[in-house]
Amino acid sequence: MPMLLVCALLIAALSGDAAGLPTVAQASRPARIVCLVPAVTEMLFAVGAGPQVVAVSSFDHHPPAVEHLARVGALLDPDLERILSLRPDLVITYGTQTELRAQLDRARIPQFVYTHGGFADVWRTIREIGARVGRAEAAARLAAAIEAAIERIRQRVAGRDTPATLLVIGREAGAVRGIIASGGVGFLHEMLEIAGARNVFADIARESVQATTELVLARRPAVILEIRGSPLDEARVRAEERAWRPLASVPAVRDGRVHIIGDERTVIPGPRIAEGAELLARAIHPGAFE
Amino acid sequence: MASPLRRRRALALLTYGSIAVLAVVISPLVGSTDVDLARALDRRIPFAENADAQILFVARLPRTLAGALVGATLAAAGVVFQGLLRNPLATPFTLGVSAGAALGAMLAITFGWSFGTAGVPAVTTASFAGAGAAVGIVYGLARARQRGLSTEVLLLAGVTMNAFFSALILFVQYFADFAETYRTLRWLMGDLDVGSYTPLVTAVPLVALAFVAFAWLARPLNLLNLGAAGAETHGLDVTRAQRIAFISASLATGAAVSVGGPIGFIGIIVPHLVRLMTGADHRIVLPAAALFGAAFLVACDLVARTAMAPIELPVGIITALVGGPFFLWLLVRKA
């Protein structure tokens, strides 16, 4: 046991040193990119760097071109051997993948470290990754186009009332149990405000909130939006909307304003966020899009 | 002999019964939001439009009753398992019931099963099925080795099943995404926010049946304390008693876990606390533990939902925070 500890400390110390070493000079336009972050994969393709990508994460599905690429695991289970065997000249990692990042540093493979944040971080990431892969101009155009699209949504819903809205990101199937909702910080909260709603949990400074039955009843949302990463068939949508019926005093339930949106554009903070925000806005303010 | 026992039992039932009733009455009146009680009970306002009444009767009351049901079941089942295995460290989860239930629940969460039977959500149904499967396997193993039921094999098979199911859980977990992983983890911490009476109504018949068995088991468990041979000289059909104890306590545990998740420590601290106060006679310990278990879990849940309101703490954390130190103290004392 003490031996193991010593080894672990030694490795930690060594990797710390390795991380401090200067990395190989970065090529201006990497040609073999491995991307572990689906949102960034979308950005790469959107700025025209798709042909430079050789592998993506196991959760990537967009754009369709990624279906033919190699898979190298994801946030929790990156496959280092697989990544190294692809001889990448740039790997896009999550900030929290400390172990993988240390290993890539030791292998002297350049990285782009992604950190999850709000909407402003999306344009910032697009511009930074664009510059890194030699597509700075296209990236600037893309970021500006998304900002403009967001601004158009804001203008569409401007002047309308902002209904108290509960944004549900997870729930037990067929029951109002285990509800996880967006709190008052982060990308989903911002998306909700752009779409012209007032988040009922805006006062809770967390990305997600475990919403109890009592809390939902007490906050009285006028609209309930449930977002899912994949599409649901019509029967399932109806069944899940019915699951809310026991909470009849909630205005959203009483007025039939529970909407279930099964679309990955609402959950991936990539170049399609404006489309995701518009889906929410259309559900909250159908009149604004007629 | 009969008279003092009856008096002691009456006193214990009165004491613990009052605590349980007090907890169940107070709990719905307290919460993260202020409820106007007069408005909540005003019959002139239609229920569907009365938010106060809905908070009281849709959110808090089923939740309180779930706490009472789960607490009573886990505490009583803990007493039965400790008596059956003649091991003070046994809990309702020792023999793999909770791990089986957890596997069922996590399969339902990960693969988004949506079947629901008679209004009971899939996660509840799947966790009960998982508990049943674990009980069946452990029981089959314990019977295979010898005629009757070997408690040693029960214990070993149960512990092994716990490990095996845990490995399966991790295996399935590997294919789940973050939201699912988080929800599974949350399920494992216990949650009594049932949101309707349906899960309770479906669990009650099974739990009631188990409590009938527990009532019959009080004397056999006292005799089992003497060891199997000793119990037999007193005319007890040991195998039959063990079988009834194992099946009734396991199924009741499965039902409780399917309602509230595997809430830890109730099944071990409550029985020991009650024994410290009332002695070891199962005719007193069993009902007293059930009543005190109900009160204890309702109280822990009250803390869980108000301590950091509007954010809620998982109730399993509260029971473990209270239960952990007590359990250690108990271990040291026994040593």
Structure report:
The complex is a heterodimer of chains A (290) and B (335). Chain A has helices at 2-20, 38-46, 80-85, 98-106, 119-132, 136-157, 187-194, 213-219, 234-242, 251-254, 273-284; strands at residues 33-35, 53-56, 70-71, 90-94, 111-114, 164-170, 179-182, 198-199, 208-211, 223-228, 258-262. In chain A, α5 packs antiparallel against α6 (136-157). Chain A is 41% helix and 16% strand. In chain A, the strands form two sheets. In chain A, strands 6, 7, 8, 9, 10 and 11 form a six-stranded mixed β-sheet that branches. A five-stranded parallel β-sheet of chain A has the order 3-2-1-4-5, with helices on both faces. In chain A, a hairpin with an 8-residue loop joins β6 and β7. Chain A has two domains: 17-149, Rossmann fold, CATH 3.40.50.1980; 159-289, Rossmann fold (3-Layer(aba) Sandwich), CATH 3.40.50. Residues 1-27 of chain A have low confidence and may be disordered. Chain A has eleven helices and eleven strands. The longest helix of chain A has 22 residues, at 136-157. Chain B starts with a helix and ends with a helix. With 335 residues, chain B is mainly alpha-helical. The model of chain B has no long low-confidence stretch (mean pLDDT 87). Chain B has a single domain (2-334), classed as ABC transporter involved in vitamin B12 uptake, BtuC. At the A-B interface, α8 of A face α3 and α7 of B.
The largest inter-chain interface, given as chain pair and residues per side, is: A-B, 32 and 41 residues
Number of helices of chain B: 13
Instruction: Please tell me what the overall shape of chain A is.
Output: globular
Number of domains of chain A: 2
CATH arch. level architecture of the largest domain in chain A:
3-Layer(aba) Sandwich
The end-to-end distance of chain A, rounded to whole angstroms, is 68 Å
Shape of chain B: globular
Structural class of chain B: mainly alpha
Return the CATH class of the largest domain in chain A: Alpha Beta
Largest sheet of chain A: 6 strands, mixed
Spans of chain A of at least 5 consecutive residues whose pLDDT stays below 50 are 1-27
User: In terms of structural class, how would the helical and strand content of chain A be classed?
Assistant: alpha/beta
